[in-house]
Amino acid sequence: MGDMHNHFYIEKNYSDFFKKSEVLNSPRTEGIIKRENFLLLMSLGYSIGFKTKFENPRAQGNDTFVMNQLTDEELALVYAIAISDSKDPEIVNNDLKVADIAMEYANTGIIALKQLEENSQKGNRIKKFQAEIHDIIEDNG
Amino acid sequence: MRIEEIQFENFRKYVDTSIKFSENNNDIHVVIAENGAGKTTFLNAMTWCLYDDEPKIRDKKNALPTLNTEVSNNSDNDIEKASVSITVSGDGLKLIYKRSDIFKIHNIHSDYYKNNGKREEWIDQEFTVTEIEGSESNVCRDKDECDLLVASFIPEAIKEFSFFDGEQLDNYFLMSSAIKDQVFRLSHIFVLDEMERRINDRLKNLRKQGNPNSSAESKLQEYNNQLKFLNSEIKRYDKLKAAYESKDGELNDLMNSLGTAPSIKELEKRRNEKIKQRDNFDNSLTIKKQELNDLIIKESPKILAKEAFNNSLGIIEENKDESYIYPIDEDILEDSIHDHSCKVCDRIFDEELLDYIKSKKAKLYLISPEDKILNANKKYFSRFKDVEDNYLKKERELQNEISNISDTIDTLDDEIKEFYNAIKVNEHLRESINRRDELLKILPTKKSELDNLKLNNDNLTLKVQKLHEEYVKLLEEEDEYKEILAKIRLCTDSLAVINDVKEDIMRETREDIQESTNEKFFKLIRKSQTYGEIKITEDYEVKLFDEDGRPAASSASASEVELLALSFILAIHSVSGYESPLVVDTLLARTSGQQRLNVAKSCLNVSEEKQLLLFLIDEEYSEPVERLFKEKHVSEYTLKESESEKIIEIRSV
User: Is residue B44 domain-shared with residue B180, that is, in the same domain?
Assistant: First the structure.
């Protein structure tokens, strides 16, 4: 999978939120960037249904973080979103496109999560997020 | 008895002089001298004459000889004497004490000595007491007899009560043990003491006379050892019992005052345990919350992306091509070709079908890498569709655990708060409660120790009694020692009686001295309103109390302390029966102004009872004192040193 296994990018403006979000970080892991968080944001963005353009994500200035190799399970998640988005199974052969789709959905996810956290009280944000998940499960039937 | 005259002959600076103390209106005599003008030598001469003791010479080894140095240097004789004689009288008897140091005078021809070649050598001392009764006189030279005659005037053991330094009067209150010893002598208890010593010796001898071949002696030894041990154990028991009773009383008081107030230490201990439990649950809560957080982070993406999995599976299916996407495992295909039957549906292959499958298998090797990737991921896509149920189940479990732990923490917080409140309510009693709890803890052990000791002592007492009985029996068995046994019993009984009598006498003497001291002090001080009474303790500490019974010695003035000491000394004189004179050096030195005059007036009172010889320096003999003494016709003498500073003369003023 080339570079994609090790590098994802977060728009610089969101790096602080990424590190301090109540949902993404427990007191134990605060400030540590985890690849699970990126995948959550990506999935959240996907569930909302649109991508947010991320111009030249690999440019200097954006926060990049080296991640451990994705597990097969995590990779399947990324591919599922990429195939669903592109409607092209062959996209799995194009790492850069897959990564771009993932990062743009993650960009949407960040904005959505930020709004969720801003609209709820401190200490109650995880519960709010849980409630969102419950709603989605209900919608999924 | 009183001193009539003192004569000096070649004694230090007193070469040939004397002083007569005639009894006129009163019997008080004042010798006034400047500092260093021979006052101390005068006082030393008196104690030297009577006791061969010059207490005020500090370095006796290097002191000059008693013989006047001028006499020594200019003597033409072979022998010279330095003498002091004191004439005392009373009850129709006159006694002349005379002590003389005898010196041999050597002519030494040496430039080394600057004494014209004369040097004295002490060769002997004489002490005589001349008794004169009426027209009869007798010169006594026997030492023991002479000592007895001195003791009839002032016994040496109590001379400190007749010859003393006014500036040291305070010290009388610091040397109570010495006073007790002296009063012991005054009380004539020493006679009883001597009796006790002799009876004890006798008893010892009697016990030794027990049959040396019998076992009585060793039995006695064993009995004595055990008795000694028993006594020490009884003392230990008494001490422990007193300590226990004191603590038990303290505990009762605490129990009465504290009621059922809880133990603060126990409350703190239980509170701390609860805090520890709460901390543990806090940790568990943090862990469970973290687990929930991890669950959300890890599992929710699969829920959120569920549509993507469904879509992807559909897309893959739509794009499937016979020659392109082939989702059959190569090994299964290989086995099916080999066995001519399908390993998936058991269909038997005919030749045509077998060729067809073989041709398809050949094409499999041409499948693109992305096909392989998609094949690999399809199983995850399918599996993720069921993730919701698992997520909800795990989330519910964690949520329940978190809720239970939170409830437990709330309960613990309430309990901890209750402990804090209980501690706060009883905080002001903390020390008392701690003490009560400590006593509750230690007293049962102490009681048990005490009971054990009591039991041991009872057993020991029985053992000692038995030993004694055995000892007595052994003695009784020996006929020839029955008499000894009777004597031993007599001695033992006598000792007990003597001991009782001694204690009675000591107590009575002390009470007499106390009464007499009170009487004399309040007579001398003339301030009956300030002080209440004087008490003399068993250890002969003189204690002054005010009218309300509070200790008042520390607030007494210097003159009052002097008068207190003087009263005490006069009381001792009175109780002892020795109506000897008082010879006091610098009595007025520690007082001034009106206080000094008060002491001087008190001296006039004292002189009504006994002869008083006061040695004063010029500064003490202030104008008011001089005026007072002159009005009362007190005899005054001065000491004058010659220009050569070798000779002192006593002059009557």
Answer: no
